[in-house]
Amino acid sequence: MDGASAFTRLRTITLPLVLYSIAPIIITQYTFNFNNFNIIYLFNNGGPAVAGSNAGGTDILVSWIYKLTMSSSQYAIAATITILLSIFVVGLALWQFRATKSFKNDDMA
């Protein structure tokens, strides 16, 4: 790529090669970010509550699902949120795998 600008080299050579190798790490990281339940629960049980809201001030979706099932027995709402969260995470992961072409089995030579 003689005469290409630094941005063009970055966009066409460097980023595709780097994204190909770090895409599984990125996907694993944001998948694990949805499972930070133990940190929220151990510090303050997801409180203090926000006025006019169903969720606490430091609640995440996973801790809110736990509260819906364990304290108020709203199993249908908790199951719906769980299914929607799962669909969102799987869809985002598949989109990123497709965008970074991580499923391709090409030689990098």
Automatic annotation (TrEMBL):
Gene Ontology MF annotations: ABC-type maltose transporter activity
Main location: membrane
Gene Ontology CC, one term: maltose transport complex
PROSITE patterns membership: ABC_TM1
Listed transmembrane segments: 12-32, 75-95
Cross-referenced InterPro entries: MetI-like (IPR000515), MetI-like_sf (IPR035906)
GO biological process, one term: maltodextrin transmembrane transport
Name by which UniProt lists this protein: Maltose/maltodextrin ABC transporter
Lineage: Bacteria, Pseudomonadati, Pseudomonadota, Gammaproteobacteria, Enterobacterales
Gene: malF_1
